[in-house]
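From: lab user (bench 3)
To: helpdesk
Subject: output format question, protein + dioxothiomolybdenum(VI) ion

Hello, I'm new to running complex predictions and I'm not sure whether the block I got back is the full result or only part of it. Here's what I submitted:
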Amino acid sequence: MIGAGIDRVDGRAKVTGAARYAYEQQIPGVAYAVLVTSTIAAGRVAEIDTAQARALPGVLAVLTHQNAPRVNGDAADRKLRVLQDDRVFYDRQPIAVAVADTFERATDAAARVRVRYERAPVATTMNVPGAVEYTPKDANANSPDSNRGAFDPAFASAPIRLDNLYVTPTEFHNPMEPHATIARWEGGRLTLYDASQGVFSRRTSIAKVFSLPESDVRVVAKFIGGGFGSKGGTNPHHALAAMAAQVVGRPVKLVLTRPQMFGGFGNRPRTEQRVRIGADRSGKLLALAHDVRSQGSRYDDFIENAAIISRMLYAVDNQVTTHRGVRIDVVTPTYMRAPGESSGSFALESAMDELAYAAGVDPLELRLRNYAESDPQEQKPWSSKSLRQCYAQAAERFGWSRRAPQPRAMRAADGWLTGMGMASSTYPSRRSSASASIALHADGTAFASSGGVDIGTGSYTAFTQVAAEASGLPVSRMHFDQGDTELPPAPNAGGSQLTASVANAILAAGMVLREKLAALATADAASPLSGRRFDELTFADGRVALRAQPSQGVAYTELVRRSGQPSIEARADLQVDRAAATPYSSNAFGAHFAEVRVDPDLGLVRLTRMVSAFAAGRIVNAKTASSQFMGGAIWGVSMALHEEGRIDERTGRYMNASLEQYLVPVNADIPAVEIILVDETDPYVNPLGVKGIGEIGNVGSAAAVANAVYHATGVRVRELPITPEKLLV
Ligand code: MOS
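Helpdesk reply: Thanks, we reran it on our side. This is the complete output you should expect:
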């Protein structure tokens, strides 16, 4: 059952509308909250007049910094200490919230809040006076700097030297479902129905803001319309909804408008990445330096850890990486799918492509010449690595051998230039503590659960499969539930870790269940299983049977009856110490191959096809996994060609805060994307051999497209996105 590409178990509920997303929960007596957000990027709210808003019919309250409840001062996170003072630190910072009996009345009231600001001067880009560079304590939990060998002399004496700057723009998360939450107080207890990537981490942070014990907070997140990192952390609207519900004494719904999604909720920060490569004439790396500057806010630290990938992807003895933050007047950035690796891979894999041309070596061959047989940074063996197979299978399917070596050498019949590019992909395989339980009922069905969240990736389906396999039941008799702090704890659906964490907990709970079933089955003197050892038994199709003689067995239903209980319960709590030393390094790997067509007169770029292969240990569901990889690959195309949060440098406001002006690809932009799942067995990464697939699809795909554009045109664009004017040189 594990591995089969079965249809989504929640597919029917989703297409019929039976699946209720956070904002769709039907809560009696609910009121509606609408945010008022700042129209300056730095300064203070000098005056705020809510009289007109409050006078409207149906308006229950208008909260500002002057009247909002005080929240926990220890919460270091400024974004959660919202409406606590008059300061403005970024464009579209929430400065008030209007609450009314209908959404329309709340919207009307929000529009009638009058604000007078005192503006402070703003620094709005990373290279102007007022932008302050700093050395961070860490780069997204990694050490900011690394150093091995001796970069300077190795680079200075290298026969081939490249030194280039790559720039990635600010990107905004735009899941189909915007941020939304419903806050309900019952006595002193708070419940959030939330668009969240993790109910337990949300509970921890919101409990802290309101000085509540965690046991007095419940968070429910049953269906999520995409998160991509933006729904991982707790955001201003969570605190505001809970405050508003407290003040009006009713449950409160709060949903962001699409433009508000470009506000106080983080983004992938703009990066400037200097990559220096020293190589010998054959393209073998002698020295590699990757220095990252990551745009950030005045009031909090977040670093796009873009150079981490350069520490481990290729074998190179002499290497330096650095991360620096640059404080300007913008919101604090946050995690966005493959934070670090996706922007870092654009720089590294573009630079490797440039090296391939400089050395006169095929780009794929260049990667093979620099293949890291072990982790060059940690100096450990890989628990498994099948990147060679990814290269080979994707290159074959793509037809890489038909590529002309020189740029601008391939042209279609209509005169458009054709280009082929490739890039490597990788993402670390992580795992955190997780718990799971299984209850086997007398009717032969079972209920399994773990409190993670399916953010749209298909984890309901994957975990149903794992629970069925672990319990020895068909998928049709297994029901899996998640997305609620009342269920066994699980980590966030983030960092590509949920499946590895929860699936192993389910597997362990299944083992506990099997032991209980075995004890019941072998204790009966009249049974053919009497006195048999555990390893003589099999558990499948709802029966315990003799391995050597499968016709001899007993049904689970009979064993539940014998237990004298309504159900047989099993639970596992797996503790994972992420800081503990391990003998192996574990990463998933992949390769993207992209073909583009470019209009030589207008610089228009069209992706024509893409083939991407991934090896990520055991794949739990081939169908949902392919979709996940494909979504990531497509997002890389979007990074290469479309997305850019554009700031007005005079005011610090983001100008294209809508899906009309902030471009994301539509179906017409994405023709054929083919995903290859490369078989890989990893005996070390975790008991199930699952590496995690959430983010790797997005790593390297922008570089593959950019490299294809170079191959088509001979123009190297080092600042994304690749827009027509950058090609008309
Ligand atoms: Mo992901 S950016 O770790 O939600």
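A quick orientation on your result: The first strand starts at residue 31 and ends at 37. Let us know if anything else is unclear.
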